[in-house]
Amino acid sequence: VQLVESGGGLAQPGGSLRLSCAASGFTFSTVAMGWFRQAPGKEREFVAGISWSGENTYYAASVKGRFTVSRDNAKNTLYLQMNSLKPEDTALYYCTRGNTNSPDRVDYWGQGTQVTVSS
Q1: Sequence-separated (6 or more) residues with CB below 8 Å from residue 61
Q2: pLDDT tens for residues 21-55?
Q3: Which of 65, 74, 94, 96 is the 20 to 30 Å CA partner of 23?
């Protein structure tokens, strides 16, 4: 199993970024996926999740209405569109496999992509 995130970088408050996660080594189209993040000095936290079909999505309260998770099963790719970014969104963002909002129950993690929100 391999999960490779990309798309992180520096954004201004109120700006946008789109993260991507290229998945391989398993049947992506049959598995729920998710995004977690970890800010400096804090524990990893759930950000968003999506069912295998993309029909159902789930969000942490802190990002609901600003972030959108989606997937392209034909391309084995997971996305996270982040709008109206805030400084508190600064973190290392991880792509994860599975249907869980608990970091202890995630079986595979990507290497992470850094998102920094600052003026």
Answers
A1: none
A2: 999 999 999 999 999 999 999 999 999 999 999 99
A3: 65
- pLDDT tens digit string along 72-110? 999 999 999 999 999 999 999 999 999 899 999 999 999
Q: What distance in Å separates the CA atoms of residue 114 and residue 119, rounded to the nearest whole number?
A: 16
Tokens of 108: 């595979």
Instruction: Say if CB 55 and CB 40 are below 8 A apart.
Output: no
Amino acid making up residue 13: P
Q: Residue 39 and residue 25: Cα distance in Å, rounded? A: 28
**Predicted pLDDT of residue 84:** 98
What type of residue is 76? N
The dihedral through the CA atoms of 29, 52, 100, 75 has a sign that is positive
Token pair listed for 45: 């936290």
Q: Residue 78 carries which side chain, given as an amino acid letter? A: L
Report residue 104 as tokens: 């202890």
